[in-house]
Amino acid sequence: METISPEGILLLLVLFQIKHALGDGPLQTTQMVKEKGFYGQAGGFFHAGIHGVGSFLALVVFGVAALPALLLGLAEAVVHYHIDFAKETMARRNGWTPDEPAFWWALMGDQLMHQLTYLAIAFAVIRLSS
Which of 67, 70, 64 is nearest to 4 (CA)? Predict the structure, then answer.
């Protein structure tokens, strides 16, 4: 892979944003929403898997070789799973609902962690290209 331009990294981050919007939006089923706060339940694994596969595809489209793209996608799925699990567990244990500010703090913390994950992946891609 060639050295990546700043514009290239921005493009990769746009691909991650599109992937994230699809994965946390229309591709997320009711089962995923219900189960991602219970460790080991299928819904959480499938939800994280969608994100991992989406990241893999974004990386391959961007030009990252298959093996590093697969490893980064797998890492993203594992991190995504645990971020979601932590947020869901915290909200459930505390009884937070969308009517309470704490719920929104937890949700925004969750989304911030996902965005920082994408920045970390972009950093890894920059290092792979140099």
Answer: 64
CB 86 within 8 A of CB 112: no
Q: 109: part of which helix (H) or strand (E)?
A: helix 101-129
pLDDT digits (tens, 9 = 90+) for 23-52: 999 999 999 999 999 999 999 999 999 999
Distance CA 54, CA 60 (A): 10
Q: Could you tell me which of 26, 22, 114, 111 has the C-alpha nearest to residue 76?
A: 114
Say how far apart CA 61 and CA 77 lie, in whole Å.
18
Q: Residue 103: left (phi > 0), alpha (psi -120 to 50), or beta?
A: alpha
